[in-house]
Each structure stands twice: as C-alpha cells, then as structure tokens.
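Anyone else keep sequences and structure tokens together like this?

Example one:
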Amino acid sequence: MTRSRIVPIAAALISAALLLAACDARPGGTGGSSAPGSASATPTPTATSSSDAAPGETVRGTGYSFAVPAGWAVPAEDPTDGQVDVFVSESADPDGRYISVVVSPGVITPADVEADGAASLEAVGATNVSLEDRVDIAGSESAHLVATLAQDGAETLIDQYYATQDEQTFVITIASPADTTDDDRRRLADTVLSSWAWG
C-alpha cells in the first residue's frame, strides 16, 4: 500500500518540476483567454472576471474554481503542454509566481502525505521539505508541504496542498521565487484556498 501513496505524490511533484523547466518557454504575454485544449477530453481551464467587488480573476478547472489576485491569468499558450489541469501565472516573467493544479485519481489523505510526502519530494530533487499545519479547502482537510526546488541555479519555493473530492485528489502547487516573503506566500495561498469551490 505504501507504493500506491508515494507514486501520486511523487508524480505531482514531478509535474511541478517540469513546470520550472517550462518557464523559459513561456509566451511573451498572458491574458484572460483559456489555455488551448490538449488531447484529453477534460475541459480547458479559463480565467474570467470576478463579479465580486474585489479585483482579480476566477480560474475554473475540472470540477473546481478558485480566485487569483488582479493581474494573474491563464497564459494564452499552455507552457506545460497539458501536463496539468490548470496553470495560472502572475506574469510572463520566468522568475514569477505561478499556481498549478494536478488532478490525480484516488484519494491522498493528509496522513498519507504526512507519512510519505517529504521522502517523495526529496526523491525528485526537492530540498528543505517541511510539513506545515493542515488546512481546510472547501470542506476537504489537506496536508501542507513546503519545499525548495532548484532549476538552473535558481531556487523556487513551493507550497503544496492536497484537496480531495469525488475519489480524486487535486494537488495544488503554489510556486514563488526563493526571496518571496512568508507574508506574501501566505496571502497568495489564502486568496486561492479560501475561494476554492467545487463544481
């Protein structure tokens, strides 16, 4: 049973690592248009203006939505080539922040992540892995891991969360440059996680 837990966790981190490599290929600009469709039959993510008074966008993925700060958007071209369900970035700057969501079949519980997550992340090159307090994401209790990934000499901090719904796990990765303050990371995570909705 251990292998069945570790594989999805490691696969999700590998997707995050692949995104770092894809940063150099990001298009010159971002916009509120949807990412181009991949070969799968799942809906493509879109960013639409929020009807609330607060500025920002609502990003919709496969069975969920969440808010991002003003100026963030789904790139006009998907830099992950369909590797993730949703990719949204702060800017076209390859050193900028981004959010990705990987949908994994099966349930990864907080206990699974707490038992195996750090080792799984370290196995794919993450360092300084720490286990933070659990959080609630739209009624789903989630573990929270923080780790550092290195790419071409630059370090990126990732905050990773695991929300579950309908026998699927939604691995939410928030990536920030290494010099991002803890307060800025917390504010961004709060914007995403407090607005997360199913459906």
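And example two:
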Amino acid sequence: MLRHILVPIDGTDYSWRALEYACELVSYTRGSLVIMTVVSGKRFQPVMEIDGDCLRAQIGDELLEAAYMMLSGKNIDCTYLLENDNNIAESILRAASEQRCDGIVLGSRGMGVLEGLFRSSVSQTVVENATVPVTIIK
C-alpha cells in the first residue's frame, strides 16, 4: 500500500493531474506526499542573470506555492522539495530514495514512438530505474 508518495511537478497539466491522483491515493491510506519540482538550465532558461540560479529558483518556488494552494484545506501531510539539477530523472530517483517514498506518481505527456526512439523521457527513465512502484498519469 502506498503511504508515502513522491509527486514531481513541472507546471504542466499532466503533473497537476498526477498531483490530484496522488491526493486521492493518500486520502484512502492516510498517507503523505512529497511534492517536488526540479529546475534545470535545460528546462528553465533565465530571462536575465541574477545571482546565478535565482530566477530558476523563483520559478520552482512558484510551482511549489501553486501546489501548496491547491492542497490547502485537504488535510494531507506534505513535504515540499525544490531541486536544482540538469538530470531531472536522476533527481526524482534520488529524492524518492532519500525521502523513503514507497511510490512515485508522475505525469507524462506521452511521447510518440518515433520521438521516444530518439530521446528518452523523464517518465520513461524513472519507470526503468525506480526501485518503488511508479504510476504514470496522462
């Protein structure tokens, strides 16, 4: 039974649906969530350079704040993590281990077969390398 679930969010509709699904899961188990976002130079290009990673961190903080607002009043135990890493999948896997999560729920935009042949998606990499169950939400 999943009681401590990692939910990576990136601001896409897929990640918000994953968060909603994870909320339903823990409402049945009275579990908890670890909500994380990973900012990287690849995904978030700074508009202007302000002390290095300051702007990317602000974007990550805004995502976590939106998740916090979405969950306010739901009485779900949550931990919020902001990671800065160019390897998003590796950061997710590391957080799942460090936070002792027993499952991961993440959104996937679902790359097509041809696109999937040429580059690996974050969700595909997480599924292939996770040591806990992974639920993909489309």
